[in-house]
Fold this sequence. Notes:
Structural class: alpha+beta
Mean pLDDT: 84
Low-confidence stretches: none
CATH architecture of the largest domain: 2-Layer Sandwich
Shape: elongated
Strand order of the largest sheet: 7-3-10-9-8
Amino acid sequence: MTYQLSERDKSILGAIIQEYVSTGEPVGSRIVSRKYMLALSPATIRNVMADLEEMGLLYQPHISAGRIPTPEGFRFYLTSIMEVKALPRGEKSMISRHMAKTLGDVKETLREASCLLSQISKNASIVILPKLESFLLKRIDFVRMDESRVLVILVSKAGIVYNHIVHGEDIPQDLLLKYTNYLNQSYADISIQEMRDRLIKEMSSEKAQFDSLVKQAINLGMTALDGFEGTPDIYIQGKQSVFNSPEMANLDRLKDIVSTFEDKGKIVRILNRVLEDPGVKVMLGKEMEHFGMDDFSLVASGYYRKQVPVGSLGVIGPIRMDYSRVIPLVGYMAKILSDLLEDV
């Protein structure tokens, strides 16, 4: 919907949102006049507030209360009023300093990113780790567990170790070692996805048809990689700050948000929506209702490796979030992670 607002109307809406973000309480015309717009009388501001309410940008929780911005009001504010602030130099330096301590350990880097996002935004933060397919393979190992189980250990060049168990026929350890050596000699230093694609292609090659060791190594490699697919790892920090917010006074809402945080698949679905286009995205109100979070908002971005999105990160909190502060924070953290992941 298109809203036609004068500059005065925009200033009043902006003042109401600024005050509501700060206090969490309905905002009255006297507060706006006294703190933000001394040149306008409370009566004039009240008339504008009534117009904004009629447009659906504000609402009045009860007759004697001030107004509260609606999700539509916040959306208009984001697109037509708010000026995104630059992240303060001190915060940039602090982030860079903390992230530099984790160089060489991608999981620790992403965990630290989640901690910093929560700490600075004072909301909950979520970082979805890159998919396994996006990393370069350092080595793969097979260890016989018993007559029907083999432990697969995959190490990426980023230093992340993945392991899981595959079930099948009894394979002696000496033969597993031969499979390991073949795969590591043939597929090291390529991405996991590229390894998967090449294994599929090589399964029908002449070499695989006439060399049983190659054929069995390829088959086991395919089985091993298939077992690594699933819900990505997720780091969540600062949930308590959300649970303690005034918006959680309603027990049903608290149950919904707790349920969402416990459902990794749901979180991945939420954050995957931001990967459709580059840049920082904001989801508000009803845009979150299918996830049981219609009183909340998400500020999120993908992060990249060689210009390909490999993961996402975001800040979740009450809809009265300080977007002018959180948006540049999320954007800067996404850039930092993209830079750090460029060569892993």
